[in-house]
Specification:
The protein has about 375 residues and is of the alpha/beta class. It is built from 15 helices and 10 strands. The chain folds into 2 domains: about 240 residues, Periplasmic binding protein-like II (D-Maltodextrin-Binding Protein, domain 2); about 100 residues, D-Maltodextrin-Binding Protein, domain 2. The strands form 2 sheets. It has a 5-stranded mixed β-sheet, with helices on both faces.
């Protein structure tokens, strides 16, 4: 499992990117006959790991494709190796890997990707890969807290620099609060589970990994984004480096088409049980996935479309990152998104109109069929 390096300053990221670009130019000059159309390896990264470091991730068609070996089967005939990389350091660790030229594609959350892009990472977002996931604020079972406000001034943990930070910021703002109103502890998901179980934290923001602890009675939820405004949910995506996309657009299209086909399979409620069983390889039982997705249409959550709703969440993230002083200046997220590959795949697979599109607030723009 890759180790999590210390965070880079923006100036360091810029220097690394410049070095990578210079190395690419030099390599091209030395190898004028190199076939840019046929890479020998495709390197993909996940901004998480399974429980206990398991090399499998649920949530999206990208994770399911890894579990099923779909990319390996697709590209074996071309002699292209598929290399999967999992990062316990989440989004910030993926940014580090991208800056060091170690990845071609990455599955990552909205907020850390925004920070990476603002610091000069040359990437393009090409696929929605897990939409509208919920977040939960948990307290130990014996806590007297019953609502978010009861934790003001107390130790509350969450993984900073990840898309959880954006959720926390928006949720607190809706209650007239800010992060500085709490004793915020930066802690990753696995360490957070141990800390809240040991009552070393008064509260913990987390994802669906908290569901089984809540069912066991070890913790209670005092806040959840479930059944609230969809603008409070988390989004994840697949991005590609600009260098790989420019050199191998046909490979990018094949990969996206495969993932859109898988997303269509995942969107069918009749496949729900089989899908959740596949995702147990992440180390979470099927009941966890059933709890997270209960009362939710798979077609809504697994849509690969880069619609107005999806892109608007990233615009909000830029504003939040500026507020947190994690980026120095704003940028337009529009050109960062490249929906051409998804659109081509949807048309080729005869899936036009299969998924609904939504406006920036989450209201339907189209009707799915």
């Amino acid at each position: 499992m890759p180790t999590t390096p210390p965070p880079l300053r923006p100036s360091h990221v810029a220097l690394i990117i410049a070095a990578i670009l210079a190395l690419g130019i030099a390599t091209s000059a030395l190898l004028p006959g190199a076939d840019a159309a046929t890479p020998t390896v495709i390197r993909l990264g996940f901004a998480t790991v399974g429980l206990g470091g398991v090399q499998a991730v649920g949530y999206s068609a990208v994770g399911t494709a890894q579990i099923k070996g779909l990319l390996e089967a697709e590209f074996a005939k071309d002699g292209i190796q598929i290399q999967w990389n999992f990062y316990r350091g989440a989004g910030p660790a993926v940014n580090e890997a991208l800056a060091n030229g170690l990845l071609d594609f990455a599955w990552q959350g909205d907020f850390p990707a925004i920070i990476g892009k603002a610091n000069g990472l040359p990437t393009r977002i090409i696929l929605a890969a897990g939409q509208r996931s919920n977040s939960y604020l948990a307290v130990p079972a014996g806590s007297t807290a019953t609502k978010l406000e009861d934790l003001v001034g107390k130790k509350v943990g969450f993984h900073k620099g990840t898309n959880m930070q954006l959720v926390v910021e928006k949720a607190l703002a809706e209650h007239g609060l800010k992060e500085k109103d709490f004793l915020s502890i930066n802690i990753d998901a696995l360490a957070g589970l141990a800390a809240i179980s040991a009552k070393e934290l008064d509260g913990l923001w987390g994802n669906l990994e908290l569901i089984e602890l809540e069912r066991s009675g070890a913790i209670r939820f005092v806040y959840s984004t479930r059944d609230q405004s969809p603008t409070l949910t988390k989004q994840t995506h697949l991005l590609v480096t600009e260098a790989f996309e420019q050199a191998h657009p046909a490979i990018v299209q094949r990969l996206v088409t495969l993932l859109v086909r898988e997303a269509a399979w995942e969107s069918e409620d009749r496949n729900r049980g089989e899908l959740f069983q596949l995702w147990t390889k992440m180390g979470l039982p099927a009941t966890t996935w059933e709890g997270e997705f209960s009362g939710t249409s798979l077609k809504l959550r697994q849509s690969p479309l880069l619609d107005d709703f999806f892109i608007a969440r990233y615009r909000e993230g830029v504003v939040a990152a500026l507020d947190f002083k994690l980026i120095r200046s704003s940028f337009d997220v529009g050109p960062w998104f490249d929906p051409r590959y998804v659109r081509t795949a949807v048309h080729e697979l005869k899936l036009d109109g299969y998924w609904q599109e939504f406006d920036d607030k989450g209201k339907p723009l189209t009707t799915a069929h």
